[in-house]
Amino acid sequence: MISRLRQQLRQFPDMLLQSNVWRSVFRQGYPDNDENRSLVVMNSVFLHFHPVKVKTNTLRPAYTLGLGIISLFLFLILIFTGGVLTFLYLPTTEQAYIFIQELHTSVPFGALLRNAHRWAAHLMVLSVFLHMMRVFYTGGYKHPREFNWVIGVILLVITFLLSFTGYLLPWDQLSFWAITVGTNIAGYTPFMGAEVRALLLGSTTVGGEALLRFYVLHLVLLPALLIILLGVHFWRIRKDGGLSAPLHAEEVEK
Amino acid sequence: MSTQEFSPQQRDKDHGLVEVMGRSTPMVNKGPEDTLPSWPYLFVWEALLFLGISALLLAMSILIDAPLREAANPNLTENPAKAPWYFLNLQELLLHMNPSLAGVIVPTIVLIFLMSIPYLDRNFSDIGIWFASRKGKLITVWSTIYTVPLLVGLILFDQYIRVRALISEPEIIPGWIIPIGVMGLLSVGLYAVIRPFRPNTREVLVAYFTGFVVTFFILTIASTFFRGLGMNLTLPWDLPPGALSF
């Protein structure tokens, strides 16, 4: 009796891995042999992001410093924390500040949520910038990756703008005057400064119109743009044969 | 497999050109194939990295509160009023030249320079090598050594001697001609510094990119930690409360 039970228990992992439910999700057995390790990528959405076999150079922490993927992870965390914050916020000059105050006083884990969103945003600006430096200094922009570098520069600018538009939303003195200074800089555009500034603010000064514009830019337009360009960025990495690497493997050691 | 399958099907193509290479992979311009399965090597690293980032962020968010000052008040100007830190480099530039030049023209030129890098450097034989070469490393160091003291010197000069105290009229001289002249001279001077290395295109770009990055960080740090009331220079421990803009 007990030995039969033990035998059944021993067979349980195999039964699970061969069951219809498991196979419908993962389509192959546990990836502990070369065939299944290939299939686990081939058969899943991850084939869009990763090849079945990856260059050892790509796995060297000293080559990538992990900065691209760190930027992506911070962006994912920002989507999640930002999404939850949206439940707890309205972009009006009367209410915005009160909602942020309530995060710190009456919303469970509200301060934690806001802190995480803010620090992730600062870290993302930093990591995207450092990612650009890494790609430059390793020559990763070279043929055939020229245009992906250009997309990367645009992604850096969008990251700046995302952080900048989010900066106004708490509607405190810090954000108000930072955005006043920032949009004044945009107002120095030659020949059409006043128009550029009016387009950003929806008015001549930072007020309710600007708060609404920055809110929509921050929640919809800029993230949509970022996600689309990020898709192209990643697709091109795959198409161009993964991350850049020295032409000859022996040069890695130098 | 029958020999039929190797023989040409069409009469007009009865030959092939084959070259034997001293390599272990048929891929062109690639060294010996040097790969590992993505699962588990790549996926597990990524998962660990995600956990690490999340843990770091959680710890940071528990320990440090995001700033929240009094409610916005258009009638009460903050002093100093600072942009977010990644735009403070522009705000620092603004103190030294015409605002159109500092706030729009210079950053636009920098962005165009950044985007044109891959089209200037067409040689991909040194792809994937940090700083291009030993020479490239030296050029990075020299570019930094050249840029830091000059920038710090210029910031101090414009605070304590002030270009506008020497020449203030007409505006075009302190606002445009002197700043463009100084930036032009700095750029030419950087090339003069690295010229003895006989740099190739990429190494010249390394020098200028390093100049840009060092400038970005120096101006950001100066404006973040050393600008107090009225955006005047001060020491970090003398900053008025709330002068840090992050």
Describe the structure.
The complex is a heterodimer of chains A (254) and B (246). Chain A has helices at residues 2-18, 20-26, 34-42, 61-64, 67-86, 96-105, 110-137, 146-168, 173-186, 193-201, 208-239, and one strand spanning 53-55. With 254 residues, chain A is mostly helical. Chain A folds into two domains: 2-48, no CATH class; 56-252, Cytochrome Bc1 Complex, Chain C (Up-down Bundle). Chain A starts with a helix and ends in a 15-residue tail after the last helix. The mean pLDDT of chain A is 93. Chain B has seven helices and one strand, in the order E-H-H-H-H-H-H-H. The longest helix of chain B is centred in the middle third of the chain and has 27 residues, at 134-160. Chain B starts with 34 loop residues before the first strand and ends in a 21-residue tail after the last helix. The chains are: A mainly alpha (254), B mainly alpha (246).
Gap between N and C termini of chain A: 64 Å
Mean pLDDT of chain B: 89
The low-confidence runs of chain A, each spanning 5 or more residues with pLDDT under 50, are none
Measured on Cα atoms, how large is the radius of gyration of chain A? 24 Å
Strand content of chain B: under 5%
Distance between the termini of chain B: 70 Å
Number of strands of chain B: 1
What spatial form of chain A do the alpha-carbon principal axes imply?
flat
Poorly predicted ranges of chain B (pLDDT <50, ≥5 residues)? 1-6
The helix-and-strand class of chain A reads mainly alpha
Name the CATH architecture of the largest domain in chain A: Up-down Bundle
Identify the quaternary structure here: heterodimer
| Percent range of helical residues of chain A | 55-70%
Largest interface pair: A-B, 92 and 81 residues
Biggest pleated-sheet summary of chain A:
none
Query: How many helical elements of chain B?
Result: 7
By CATH, the topology of the largest domain in chain A is Cytochrome Bc1 Complex, Chain C
Number of domains of chain B: 2
Describe the biggest sheet of chain B? none
Overall body shape of chain B: extended
Strand content of chain A: under 5%
